[in-house]
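[agent] plan:
  1. take the single chain provided in the ticket
  2. run structure prediction with default settings
  3. attach structure tokens to the ticket
  4. add a short note for the reviewer (M.T.)
[agent] executing step 1
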Amino acid sequence: MAKIVRLEPIAQDTSVETNSNLLSVLLQKDLDVLKECGGRGMCATCHIYIRDGEEALSPMNRREQRTLEVITSCKPNSRLACQARVLGQGVVVELPPGMYVQSLKDIEDLIGRRADTNLLNPVTGDVLVEEGKLITRSVVKQLEDTKFKVSDYFSQTSDF
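[agent] step 2 finished; step 3 output follows
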């Protein structure tokens, strides 16, 4: 039986089959989700917040919990969309503000412009450039040694 999930702040409702994960909801709405680890709960690129209806989702497993501990933008209502399965009605998902940078070229192309949204580090989730601030060459310098294959980063850390 289908369940309705609400996406905020874009104010869209979407239908999802019972026991489907929230990642399928995001992909169904053509939202830009990296899903770098292929939905295994290891990369946090599908990190979301649950505004309402946490009890209508599957419980958090140990892998999801450990992955969320790595990112700085984690809150008590954080979940990984790939791991959270919809079991009941009333789920309201809050999409995180900002965008994840996928390559150094993404930033280089924006030098001299103001950021439309927060630009976030692809691994840590730290804010690189705040919304409305000028994107400078120093941001590119800051990222030169960053590994943009998030799955490579996580495969070299801890015991996921």
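[agent] step 4 note for reviewer: The radius of gyration is 16 Å.
[agent] ticket updated
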